[in-house]
């Protein structure tokens, strides 16, 4: 399949590892997707079993810091692995790479107590964390409208009150990073801080799951005067958006890599169907309209992958990547939706039912154009930078 990819080829020293990851995701994770999508106890037990298998095979926590128990795979190498593990939405969680953003954030901005208490447990998979910014009564693209509030007490502890929603993994998390207003009032640009809230804290309550087209994983929760220790403030008071900006570019780029993996999976399914499905007049792939679906899907993959890896390269070099990440995010989300849609069309009715992963891949592609910033946000942001660039 390598000749269909476009963009940089996988380095020889990483190719074997990528292939092992691809085999694990295909043979172990993908057969469990229906159970994992439902959530609940059976899903949790299944995920634990997969994680144990990943550890036994030496595939656990590849990109996480080595001094914390990960394997320290550099970003340029991990990018190729991320495509392979991302072919399933559940690949990163099964392989222990899902908490990468939170681990890096806590390592850099957490207090000594937070780093000591949580970091190694997160890398080991003993604790789970999530990140909450969006609120039900305001647009997720405008953090200045945040109304969740954290008030300092005389003992230095924070009392947090508010609501968050569409928070990935909140129902099963042990810790949640909450964007809260510590000073001023909405829509002030200053006064926003990040606090790490243990989900066992009195006053923290998951109010409902928010299935995305039937798939579990997103939730809404409330904080009703939840008291958080002073040392659970991340970074400096009022510096939430600086910390958030650090993780956003890497986070969006990692998602793009995983969406590429899923788009390639949809393409492979479509290609196989076109080659093996026969009609009374010959193979399905002989039809020009089917050939057009294959061509347009391949074109999308070949033009999107270089954009994503350009963003990876700039992030790895420590350069500003706002334009590259914006282009990659919009292109990768569109590509996944387009390729999955074409594959469904080639499959016909079978592509709508439970016998293929295509409905789930299409669901992910469509949601990708809204979650983590809608297309319109990235389009406007990139255009503004280009228009003011000298």
From TrEMBL:
<dbReference type="InterPro" id="IPR009100">
    <property type="entry name" value="AcylCoA_DH/oxidase_NM_dom_sf"/>
</dbReference>
<dbReference type="InterPro" id="IPR013786">
    <property type="entry name" value="AcylCoA_DH/ox_N"/>
</dbReference>
<dbReference type="InterPro" id="IPR037069">
    <property type="entry name" value="AcylCoA_DH/ox_N_sf"/>
</dbReference>
<keyword id="KW-0560">Oxidoreductase</keyword>
<dbReference type="Pfam" id="PF02771">
    <property type="entry name" value="Acyl-CoA_dh_N"/>
</dbReference>
<dbReference type="Pfam" id="PF00441">
    <property type="entry name" value="Acyl-CoA_dh_1"/>
</dbReference>
<comment type="similarity">
    <text>Belongs to the acyl-CoA dehydrogenase family.</text>
</comment>
<feature type="domain" description="Acyl-CoA dehydrogenase/oxidase C-terminal">
    <location>
        <begin position="243"/>
        <end position="387"/>
    </location>
</feature>
<dbReference type="InterPro" id="IPR046373">
    <property type="entry name" value="Acyl-CoA_Oxase/DH_mid-dom_sf"/>
</dbReference>
<dbReference type="GO" id="GO:0016491">
    <property type="term" value="F:oxidoreductase activity"/>
</dbReference>
<dbReference type="InterPro" id="IPR050741">
    <property type="entry name" value="Acyl-CoA_dehydrogenase"/>
</dbReference>
<dbReference type="InterPro" id="IPR006091">
    <property type="entry name" value="Acyl-CoA_Oxase/DH_mid-dom"/>
</dbReference>
<dbReference type="InterPro" id="IPR009075">
    <property type="entry name" value="AcylCo_DH/oxidase_C"/>
</dbReference>
<feature type="domain" description="Acyl-CoA dehydrogenase/oxidase N-terminal">
    <location>
        <begin position="16"/>
        <end position="126"/>
    </location>
</feature>
<dbReference type="InterPro" id="IPR036250">
    <property type="entry name" value="AcylCo_DH-like_C"/>
</dbReference>
<comment type="subunit">
    <text>Homodimer.</text>
</comment>
<keyword id="KW-0274">FAD</keyword>
<protein>
    <submittedName>
        <fullName>Acyl-CoA dehydrogenase family protein</fullName>
        <ecNumber>1.-.-.-</ecNumber>
    </submittedName>
</protein>
<feature type="domain" description="Acyl-CoA oxidase/dehydrogenase middle">
    <location>
        <begin position="130"/>
        <end position="218"/>
    </location>
</feature>
<keyword id="KW-0285">Flavoprotein</keyword>
<dbReference type="Pfam" id="PF02770">
    <property type="entry name" value="Acyl-CoA_dh_M"/>
</dbReference>
């Amino acid at each position: 399949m390598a000749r269909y990819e476009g963009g940089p080829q996988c380095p020889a020293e990483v190719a074997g590892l990528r292939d092992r990851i691809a085999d694990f995701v295909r043979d172990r994770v993908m057969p469990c997707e229906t159970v994992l999508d439902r959530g609940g106890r059976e899903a949790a037990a299944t995920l634990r079993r997969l994680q144990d298998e990943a550890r036994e095979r030496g595939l656990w926590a590849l990109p996480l810091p080595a001094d914390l128990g990960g394997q320290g795979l550099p970003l340029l190498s991990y990018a190729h692995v991320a495509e392979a593990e991302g072919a399933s939405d559940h690949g990163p969680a099964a392989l222990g790479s899902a908490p990468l953003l939170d681990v890096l954030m806590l390592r850099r901005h957490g207090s000594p107590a937070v780093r000591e208490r949580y970091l190694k447990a997160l890398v080991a998979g003993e604790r789970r964390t999530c990140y909450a910014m969006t609120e039900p009564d305001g647009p997720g693209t405008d953090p200045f409208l945040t109304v969740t509030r954290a008030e300092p007490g005389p003992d230095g502890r924070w009392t947090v009150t508010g609501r968050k929603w569409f928070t990935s993994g909140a129902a099963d998390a042990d810790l949640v990073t909450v964007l809260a207003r510590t000073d001023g009032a909405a829509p002030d640009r200053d006064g926003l801080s990040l606090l790490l809230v243990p989900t066992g804290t009195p006053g923290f309550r998951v109010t409902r799951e928010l299935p995305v087209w039937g798939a579990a994983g997103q939730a809404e929760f409330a904080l009703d005067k939840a008291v958080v220790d002073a040392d659970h403030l991340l970074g400096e008071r009022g510096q939430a958006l600086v910390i958030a900006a650090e993780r956003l570019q890497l986070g969006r780029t990692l998602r793009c890599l995983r969406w590429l993996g899923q788009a390639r999976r949809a393409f492979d399914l479509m290609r196989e169907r076109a080659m093996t499905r026969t009609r009374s007049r010959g193979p399905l792939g002989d039809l020009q309209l089917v050939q057009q679906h294959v061509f347009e899907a391949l074109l999308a993959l070949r033009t999107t992958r270089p954009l994503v890896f350009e963003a990876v390269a700039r992030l790895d070099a420590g350069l500003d990547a706002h334009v590259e990440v914006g282009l990659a995010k919009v292109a990768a989300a569109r590509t996944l939706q387009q390729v999955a849609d074409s594959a469904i069309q080639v499959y016909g009715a079978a592509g709508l039912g439970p016998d293929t992963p295509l409905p789930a891949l299409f669901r992910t592609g469509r949601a990708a154009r809204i979650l983590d910033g809608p297309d319109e946000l990235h389009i406007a942001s990139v255009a503004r930078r280009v228009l003011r660039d000298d």
